Amino acid sequence: MKFTAAFALAVWLVVTGWLATMVIVKPAVLHLGNDADETAEMAQLRGAIEHNRQMQERVALLRQSAYTDGNQPLLALPSAPPTATDGGAAAPRGATGTSGDPSTHTVSVVLVANGQRSAIIDGRHVRAGTRLADGSRVAAIGADWVRIESSDGARAVHAVPSPYQPASGAAR
After folding, report:
1. pTM tops 0.85
2. Residues 6+ away with beta carbon under 8 Å from 129
3. Are 157 and 149 in contact (CB under 8 A)?
4. How far apart are CA 148 and CA 124, in angstroms?
5. Cα(165)–Cα(159) distance, rounded to whole angstroms?
6. Cα separations in angstroms, 62 against 42, 56, 76, 162, 163
7. Distant-in-sequence, close-in-space partners of 156: CB < 8 Å, separation ≥ 6
8. What is the pLDDT of residues 56-109, one digit of tens each?
9. Nearest to residue 80, comparing CAs of 4, 157, 158, 2?
C-alpha cells in the first residue's frame, strides 16, 4: 500500500506526457503535407492571389496612362472588331455609307468629361450637333447610345457595343 501513491503518480505522469505529445505532434503532422487535397487547394489559392495581383497592376497602369480632360480621367475601351460584309471581306474601321443612311455609322465609345458627353463615331470625336462626313448630324448622345439624324430626316439610335458581349446589329 505504501507504493500505491507513487505508482498512481507515475501512471498520471505517463498519461499526461502521452497526451502532451499528441497535442504537440498532431499540428506538425498536418503541416507535413499528408493531406494532398489540401495542398492542391492551397496551390490554387496561391495562383488566384497572384492572378489578382497582376490584374491590379494592369489596372494601375491603365489609370496612369488614361487621357484626362480637366481633372476627370477618361478611359476608352476598343470597339469590337469589324464584321464581315456580304462579300465576305471585313469592312474597314471608320467606313461609312455614301447614301446618308444614319444606320451605316459605327459608334465605338461614349465619353463623359466635365459633365459633357461626346462620342467616337466612325473613328472621329464628335459632340451633339456635329455634322458627319455623309451630311448626317449627331442629334443626341446618351450614356450608352447615340442618335443620328440623316439629311432627309431619318433617325437611327446606335447602341455602344459592349466589350464583354459579341457585337449585334448596329442600329436599333
Report:
1. no
2. 137, 138
3. no
4. 14
5. 13
6. 31, 10, 10, 19, 16
7. 101, 102, 103, 105, 147, 148, 150, 171
8. 888 887 766 555 555 555 555 554 444 444 343 333 333 334 445 556 888 888
9. 158
Distance CA 116, CA 122 (A): 20
Pairing of strands 72-74, 145-149: unpaired
Q: Is 73 in contact with 62 (CB distance < 8 Å)?
A: no
Q: Compute the C-alpha angle 5/11/16, nearest 5°.
A: 125
DSSP 93-125: TT---SS--GGG--EEEEEEETTEEEEEETTEE
- From residue 74, how far is each of 2, 56, 77 by CA, in Å? 91, 18, 10
On whether the CB atoms of residues 82 and 75 are closer than 8 A, the answer is: no
pLDDT tens-place string over residues 36-59:
556 778 888 889 999 999 998 888
| Residue 138: exposure state from Cβ atoms within 10 A (0-12, 13-18, ≥19) | buried
User: What's at 80, amino acid-wise?
Assistant: A
